[in-house]
Write a structure and sequence with these properties.
The chain is mainly α. It has a single domain (4-222), classed as Tetracycline Repressor, domain 2. Helices cover 62% and strands 0% of the residues. The longest helix has 24 residues, at 47-70.
Length: 229
């Protein structure tokens, strides 16, 4: 059963689908979640605390999704390709994740300000974690890469740790390139389809990603010099 905190975060995310962050009001978020405004402030401390918690949850959701795909019973290199494909489609559908992965924030969706130096720590453990700050694109991609590399090594493909890290770094940066510069044109009305829309125009990119990643793994495994193109 969702907690009050989850309901508040969901309400804030829904509000963001139609409004810039500056226009999202705490009283409206509390009302949409069916809790008092005081409960909202007890959980997050401030509107900036709510923003930090939203971004922290989005980063955690991305990493959990990466772990879920890597745990499939398919060959590990296939799972890494699935992570790359999923990264593209999720980043397109979720503006908050896209900003996290690319660092491309804006006036509509500004980066959350860090907690004030010397401010009293929140009494809510989840908020204390959020207030420590959100990962940079390098940090978030690095965490996904490390998980993927571990799956490759433990999957018995014969890579050493350094080789696996290199392969996964290239695979995920390839995915990120499609997020930043998509292969197709996203229709203008897609922005109105909501936070969870998944534009069809992006789907043709995923077979390309898979083919290139499979080539990366093949070259990395078979080349005597272990050079990735």
């Amino acid at each position: 059963m969702p907690t009050a905190r989850d309901a508040l975060l969901d309400a804030a995310l829904t509000a963001l689908a139609g409004l810039p962050w500056s226009a999202v009001r705490m009283v409206d978020v509390a009302s949409a979640a069916g809790v008092s405004r005081q409960t909202l402030y007890n959980e997050f401390g401030s509107k900036e605390g709510l923003a930090r918690a939203l971004v922290r949850r989005e980063a955690d959701a991305y990493l959990h999704g990466v772990e879920r795909l890597l745990a499939r019973p398919d060959p590990p290199e296939r799972n890494v390709a699935a992570v790359a494909e999923w990264t593209v489609t999720e980043a397109v559908a979720r503006p908050l994740l896209r900003a996290l992965l690319t660092g491309c924030w804006g006036r509509r969706l500004p980066p959350p300000r860090p907690a004030r130096a010397g401010a009293r720590a929140s009494a809510v453990p989840a908020q204390r974690r959020a207030d420590r700050g959100v990962p940079s694109p390098v940090d978030l991609l690095g965490q996904a890469r490390d998980r993927a590399a571990t799956a490759l090594v433990e999957g018995g493909r014969g890579e050493d740790a350094e080789q696996a890290l290199r392969s996964c770094e290239v695979a995920l940066r390839l995915a990120l390139s499609y997020v930043i510069a998509p292969g197709g044109v996203v229709p203008a009305n897609d922005a109105a389809r909501g936070q969870w829309a998944e534009p069809e125009s992006w789907r043709p990119t995923t077979p390309t990603i898979t083919n290139v990643i499979e080539t990366i793994f093949k070259v990395d495994t078979m080349s005597p010099r272990k050079i990735i193109p």
